[in-house]
Amino acid sequence: MPYLPQTHPLRWFRPALRSFAAAGTALLPACLLLAGCVCLSTLSACAQLPAPASLAGMAWNVSQQRMLPVAEVLQQLSAADIVLLGETHDNPDHHAIEATVLDAFAAKGSAVLVLEQYDLEQQSALDAIARSGDGDTVRLAALQRLMGSGWEWPAYQPLLATALHRGLPVVAANASRATLRPVSKEGFAALGPGRATQLGLATGWSAAQQSLLGSEIADGHCGRLPAPAVAAIAIAQRARDALMAERILAQATAPVVAILGRGHVRHDLAVPVYLRQRAGNRRFVSVGLVEAGDSAAAADYDRSSLGALYDFILFTKPVIRKTDPCAGLVPTTATLPP
After folding, report:
1. Residue 333 falls within a domain, yes or no?
2. pLDDT 10s digits, 64-104
3. I need a labelling partner for 269 at 20 to 30 A (CA). Which of 80, 84, 135, 200 fits?
4. Is residue 327 in a domain?
5. What is the pTM of this model?
6. Cα–Cα distance between 290 and 274 in angstroms, integer?
7. Residues 6+ apart with CB under 8 A from 265
């Protein structure tokens, strides 16, 4: 499998590859454009790999360019109003870290759990389950049925069990295919009058950011997408990140712990771009949960051409994925889904 950096946008559109395999090359652009950030079931059959001893289990302060104890990172996170945890969806170590962070906030008395694993349209169902009065076992079963089949339920069950047991709100963060389909075709105007300005999509975005996002999307799809499809995906991705930021900022009653794909927590291109415009005095922290790769230099993982990716990096053991996501993909001339 070719090397794909841990910040690679292929992580953002992984389910498209499964759809492509089932439906054929003609559907490739539609799948890539409309898929959420879901882990392929074929990629869940993975094994832990040994990692560079100097990085796995270590924490990196990006601004200070120094290693520090994981406990110190957790202590600093406890002072934040919003904690963005950027995971690789099929890495069990990432899920364990997330559970630790949520437990720490819950033990202090309050938190809001924001999950990419549920669509915005599912919020009323999430609220109904929480208010149902049923026992935790029954409510967990309902939450499992509500979660899309592409997500690995055992990875998120502990987080939701903690939320139910502690009475923590569970908030959906993902923009669905139905929301993003018209945006991909018509642009941000499809979000509604004034929404682009409200969401921070109308300002604060440079040509350099657009170029980098397009390049990473193209690379993440094995260089086999035409330019119009890359542009459409970039529009959809920006809208998704801005909507995630809005949902996070709407939770003002308690600290927020947001579980997102790592591509969504990047300072240069993703949710933090929109939080910076709208968060006011609320302090947010981005944590990249990064699989240690060949390099034993932490600084090799912490920035793009536009600057720092995260505030902190927590390094974990890598996993080996048994499927090459580029295998079998062929170039296509189509651009947008019907």
Report:
1. no
2. 999 999 889 989 999 999 999 999 999 999 999 999 999 99
3. 80
4. no
5. 0.85
6. 23
7. 84, 85, 86, 258, 271, 272, 286, 287, 288, 310
Q: What is the DSSP letter of 317?
A: -
Q: Scanning the structure block, which residue is given the tokens 């969504």?
A: 264
Task: Report the percent of the chain where pLDDT is more than 90.
Answer: 72
| Token pair recorded at residue 312 | 């902190």
- Taking CA atoms, 259 is separated from 7, 155, 305, in Å, by 16, 11, 25
Token pair, residue 232, equals 């459409």
Query: Tens digits of per-residue pLDDT, 202-227?
Result: 999 999 999 999 999 999 899 999 99
Indicate the range of 1-15, 39-53, 175-189, 281-295 predicted with least confidence: 1-15
Q: How far apart are the first and last CA of the chain?
A: 32
On whether residue 285 sits in a domain, the answer given is yes
